[in-house]
Structures are given as structure tokens and as C-alpha cells.
Amino acid sequence: MRKKLLLSLIAVCTLVALVGCGSSSEKTADSDKPAKGILSEPYAQEKFLLGTYVRIRVYDEGKKSVLTPAFDRVKELGDKITINQSGSEIDEVNAQAGIKPVKVSDDVYSLVKKAYEYSEDSRGGFDMAIGSVTQLWRIGFDDARKPSQEEIDQALKLVDYHKIELNDEEKTVYLKEKGMIIDLGAIAKGYITDEVVKVLKDNGVTTAIVDLGGNVYVLGHSPRGENQDWNVGIQDPNLARGSVLGTIKEKNKTLVTSGIYERYLEVDGVKYHHLFDPQTGYPFDNDIASVTIITNKSVDGDGLSTAVFSMGVKKGLSYVEELDNGTNAIFVTKEGKVYVTDPIKDEFKLAEDSDYSMGDRSKLE
Question: In angstroms, rounded to a whole number, what is the distance separating the alpha carbons of residues 353 and 141?
Fold first, then answer.
């Protein structure tokens, strides 16, 4: 269930029109001028971490040094959480499956607890114990393959978050059956994104962009003006990364996307994407090409994007609207239709040159 395939803000310079870093000759009203101490060109750094490109841009004057602890936090958490390198805390939890509980750090325990909550709340679409399936297919890695049905059937017997025992007092995690594998790839980047934002805020940063391979957080107002929100582009699932199908204005929000278009395995002419159904052991098969969650915390965007992807467009829209906590969603279907939750129907703007059209919710089945 690893994912995350967003979004503009991937390279600010290519998104001048979107994020509003306009040219020096552009005329702006006084109310749209940057706040005092906000730079038009950010302190920016990019590193390859977590198997993706991590980009952080800080616009507060004199805050370049904050990039160092921000990236240190990414690496620290990545080393604790990954299941694709030995020595991580999650790797140890998996190695001790069916043997004994493993004491983990506060960071990892908090993330595991959140993953358990989404496993319970997602109506079966998110299961933190999906690892036996994802590690079987290995989509996104050089050794990816389509397993046999027998292998899938065996792996599915180990996909059951109910068999995970958490001890809040001891901060231990225990997988009750040997061979079980926790895979937090569907939620880890969100948690790490939120932690990076904490580092920025704790160090006095008020205006920034954090992009962890598609988990995007826009902090504060756009540097274009102290009263202007960021204009964020939503990735076109059928074109190269950075191609935008529409935009929405946001501030102090995270945007997280799950989609079928960037990591997949093709076998005998059939494409298998990397978002797996815990019930079948195969990728989800429905009408969704991508879904973007807009919410306050990136870890919630992560969990929700996978959960609602499993539901299809109609149920997914209703599920997000029932949350009633300011969370919204943008769905893109394989047929080229775009659907948004009601609170943002007037805020989301489809690109004029887009090949997509807004869908009619009353016709959804």
C-alpha cells in the first residue's frame, strides 16, 4: 500500500504561476506584498531519502540553517521505520513475529498506533499488516514479480491487523503469528512530513513548502503576499510528474495523493499498480486513477488516501464528507472525470487546457 504520487510544488521554479513566486516586474497591490522578512526566493535543499526525493523550501529570511535539523529528522525517522533495510525498529518487530514483543521508540510507537487506528476505521481498505503481500509483489523494486495464486493465498493468511498486540505502557509491538509483516509505507511519509513541519515551526519558520515525494505541506501564506494562499497544482495521473490538471488555494494544509500511475508492474500486457487490497492480495480494481486528500496532518492524509481509494469514488466522497473536520478530497477517474467533496467545489479550478471534465455525482453508481 505504499504510495504518494502528488503533485506540483515539485519544483517551485516550474510552478511560478501556481505558487506565486512571480517576476519582479509584476504589479501587486500593497495587501499582496510579502510579509516583512519573507523572501521571494527560498532557501532550498533536496536529498534522496525514503526512496524518493525530499524537498524543503524555507522562505523566512535568516532561517537557512533550519534545513539541517529538518533533513536530519527525515533521516532519523526513515532509519527507524523502513522495512527494506536491516536494523530498523520495524524490521526488528517483523523479525520477532510469533516470538516476542519488541520495545520501540516513542516515534515508532506513535506511528504504529495511528496505523492501527486507520486499520480499524477504514472499513477494510487499510491494513497495517499488508506486508506479507507487498513484499511478495515487490512493486517499485528491481525484483518485482507477479506471484502465483498459491503464494498470494498463503500471504493473505498473515494479513490481519487484529493479530497485532500493542502495549501502551511498555511501548511494545507484537505480531502474534510468525511470518506477519508490518508495512507502514502507506502512512510513514505522512508522519515524517508532520515531524518536519514541527521542526520548522519550533525554529521560527512561518512560510515553507515540505515535499516528501508527494506528501506536500504548505506552511503559512504564499511568499507572494501575506494575505495570499498557496496555489497548489494537482497532478495529472496520465502525464509526467509536474503536469497539472487543476489547482486549489490552501494554507497550513497538507495534500496527499494515492494513484495508480507511477509505480506498477506489467505482466502479459496487464498493469498491476502498487495499492493493494488486503482482501484479495491484488491491487485495488475500481474506477479511481488517483485521489488527493487535503487535511491538517499529513499522517491523516496518508491513511485516508489509501482508505478511500479502496472504496471507489461514490463511497469515498461520502466517507470524507462524513468526517466533518475540514478534510476534503479530489478524485480523478480512469475515464477522465474529476469529483470533489462539496466544501471545495467552488475552490477547485480545473485547468483550462485540461483534458478532464468535472463529473456529475448524481450519476455515480
Answer: 34
Cell numbers for 186:
502507506
Contact 160, 127 (CB under 8 A): yes
Contact 55, 213 (CB under 8 A): no
One-letter identity of residue 274: H
Quick one: pLDDT at residue 3?
39
Tell me how far apart the alpha carbons of residues 285 and 142 are, in angstroms, rounded to a whole number. 24
Nearest to 331 by CA among 313, 348, 308: 313
Beta-carbon contacts of residue 354 (< 8 Å; ≥ 6 apart) = 236, 245, 246
Rounded Cα–Cα distance for residues 218 and 223 (Å): 11
Contact 274, 283 (CB under 8 A): yes
DSSP assigned state of 276: B
Contact status, residue 224 vs residue 78, Cβ threshold 8 Å: no
Q: Across the 365 residues of the chain, what is the mean pLDDT of every consecutive 10-residue run?
A: 36 30 37 76 94 93 98 95 83 96 97 93 85 90 91 96 97 97 91 97 97 91 89 84 87 90 77 86 89 95 89 93 92 95 96 91 89
Backbone phi, psi, residue 52, to 5° = -150, 175
Please tell me the pTM assigned to this model: 0.87
